[in-house]
Amino acid sequence: MSLKKLMWRFRYAEWSSLLFIAPAILLFSIFVVYPIFQTIWLSFWKWDRISPGVWVGLDNYKKVLSNPEIYSAFSHSLVFVLFYSLIPIAVGLLITLLLLRVKIRGESFFRAILFLPQIISTVVVAISWRWIYAADGPINSLLTKFGAEKITTAWLGNFDTSLIAVGIIGTWINYGLAMILFLSGAQRISQDLLDADRIDGANMRQEFRYILIPSIKGEISIVLIITLTFALRNFDIVWNATQGGPGNSTNVPSLFIYKSAFVNRYVGEAAATSFLLAIVILSVTGLLLLARKESND
Amino acid sequence: MFKKRLGILFAIVTLMITGCSSPGSDTGSKANTADVISQPVTVEEVAALGDITLDVWADAGEEKTMKILVPKYEAMYPNVKVNLTLKGFDDLMKTVVPALAGDPAPDVVQGNQGYGVDGALVKGGLIRKLTDVSTAYNWGSAYNPDDFGQFSWSEDGSQYGTGELYGMSPVGEFVGVFYNKKKLAKLGITLPNTFDEFATALEKAKKAGETPIILGNSDKWPATHVFGLIQGAFTPASETKDLITGKAGSSFISSTNETALNTMRDWITKGYFTKGFDGVSADDATAKFAAGNGLFYMGGTWFGGTIGEGLGEDAGFMANPPGASGKHAGTGSYGLGWHISSKTDALAASVAFVAMIMDPAFAPSLASLDRIPSATATLEASSALLKDMQDAGKKMFQDAGLTFYLDWSTDTMYDVYTAKLQEFMAGKIKAAEIMQAIQDNWDTFQKSRNG
Fold first, then answer.
1. Does the residue B428 lie in any domain?
2. Do A154 and B414 touch (CB under 8 A)?
3. Are B215 and B269 part of one and the same domain?
4. Residue B320 located in a structural domain
5. Contact B101/A242, CB-based, under 8 Å?
6. How far is CA B78 from CA B47, B137, B338, B341, B370, in A?
7. What digits encode the pLDDT tens for the residues B257-312?
8. How far apart (Å, rounded) are the C-alpha atoms in residues B339 and B111?
9. B352 within some domain
10. Contact A247 B428 (CB under 8 A)
């Protein structure tokens, strides 16, 4: 929408209609808009939650941006985008495609099972995976059984494997969401179209490219936005699985915010990091929405 | 019309921004410092407060102690109802400072020694000095006054280790070496008396195919306790304490610390610790040792209950084996300090509460819960393991060997120390690099503290 159009709407909108959504606006303002403004406001102060705050302007932003650890934390988030978003989408698409072609008995049961990781508390998930990944856990037992003892390790405690290991937990949680949304989208595809396509001799790849993807484009972008946001602001899985360790090898921006705000009481720095993280997330989702709109047009 | 609407929008945004007033401007303390305690508080003085509720915040680890203390207190001071809030350690540390800054604040709380929590409480004027209470109750004779430094601060909270007393704890908590007696006998190893003998015992155990030391370090802090033990054998305890309390000119960069770090790394290379220790939690490691795995477990006395329950008569505990100095030293301190809010309206009741838990007459109750009373009087131990821990405590207290916790030294030291130690243990950085990182953090903090 152009700025001119927006201004026109603003000028001539029927403002009395706003009364109907006033309760929602009020709640949204109190619980979402006000905290956002407050966070931005706090990011300009040096405050330890005890003494009166001191106005420091952009100092908190300078401090955060000059900390090399924050860049490595953001780079870990980018790795998580792959594991929390792109791989689950790929797995979800694959399962959807398979279920389109192959009818399985008790499909809804399997669907429910595959969706289960989505509804389990992430704390429970992280702790379970800590056990699965342990040096004497089931993964290493299996590897030992198959003669691969040499590659066994404490997957979450090893600097070289911890980031990927945490990423895989995210994949396990998110692929169910992708699958369920894709399957619901795929139900819109008419059976006639699929039959005609198969009579014409389309193979799986063609069915995937020319029928499935265009039919569930909307669902794909929704899953992409949800999982990308999850990947970038991820806290609970990392905190409960590794606390950002070993060293800082799985540190993410949310951990910085948590520690700054609640452990070290550098509230201004925590607010500045939060605002920067929000900008990154908004930019990424904004770009995705733009791309979606353009492809729709 | 358009201008009017723009005006409304502008007003909303302005309201949002101005609604965010200067942070912390309404948290100023209304310090209740006028009343000086010159004599032990009497029942009549507390009764004069009328029917009141005393808000007490404590660490969840105090639950059993509170179950004994609170009924005793309420029976002695029937006009007071104790409203006890127990919180997990992490939760308590994150909430106690803002809680005392808020209104209404709890009357009595537990903090944590060092700049992170107690330092903030003193700096913010949120807790009351207890020097007068200590004098009135003569804590100096029941406890070793040399140990009071860990609760002492200058009034502005800038100097730690000296000055006024702001808190106190009736128990000692320190890291020592738990051992499995049955396995020691099986391996033909006699209990080591020195650090060298300890290193030889580790070597012998490894050769016999045993895991010499059980360690779980996914929580990041357990390895710092192990390092504290090794450091105690090389670096004089006073040097470590000077650094932690912020004494000018202190340094973590020393040849003794370097030797300690390299010894730790050497033990890792030799496979003395649990395989994949960075992926094992502290609780899981303790459970493993309590189930009979491994020969030694370097852990705090607070694990005594779990280990004693698991190993039974086979559980033993010894003080950190001393290095060349012959002095027992290592990570440890008094327990979390008890503090009185500077805003309390029930000063007499608060003082009576803290005094009751600090009373040496309460020490047997603490010992009955497998805790190590820091009072100097000797107590009868209820189990062999507790006796071991009490004996070890005596050695540590006598040698003034409790080196506190390095993370007390600055408000961000915990993050730096734990992360760098993991990197060092994994061979990612050298001893010089971790020492420099710790020193840089300390220097930066001292600089900011001294303006």
1. yes
2. no
3. yes
4. yes
5. no
6. 8, 22, 22, 22, 29
7. 999 999 999 999 999 999 999 999 898 999 999 999 999 999 999 898 889 999 99
8. 7
9. yes
10. yes
pTM of the model: 0.85
Residues B224 and B249 in one domain: yes
Q: Whole domain around residue B51: which residue ranges? A: 43-168+336-373
State whether residue A245 sits within 8 Å of chain B by CB. yes
Tokens of A44: 């300009």
Candidates A11, A41, A130; nearest CB to B17: A41
Tokens of A187: 């139900």
- Say yes or no for a CB contact (<8 Å) between A50 and B123: yes
Give burial (CB, 10 Å; 0-12/13-18/19+) of B449. middle
Contacts with A54 (C-beta within 8 Å, 6 or more apart), sequence order: A45, A46, A47
Instruction: State the count of interchain CB pairs (< 8 A) between A and B.
Output: 133
φ, ψ of residue B80 in degrees (nearest 5): -110, 130
**Residues B60 and B209 reside in one and the same domain:** no
Asked if residue B12 belongs to a domain, the reply is: no
Q: Do both B232 and B320 map to the same domain?
A: yes
B158 and B247 housed in the same domain: no
Closest CA to B386 of B406, B368, B402: B368
A146: contact with B, CB 8 A cutoff: no
Can you tell me whether residue A56 is helix, strand or coil? coil
Global ipTM: 0.80
> Number of structural domains, chain B?
2
Asked if A264 lies within 8 A of B411 by C-beta distance, the reply is: yes
Chain B closest-CA separation from residue A42 CA (Å) = 7
Q: Which fold has domain A44-296?
A: MetI-like fold (1.10.3720)
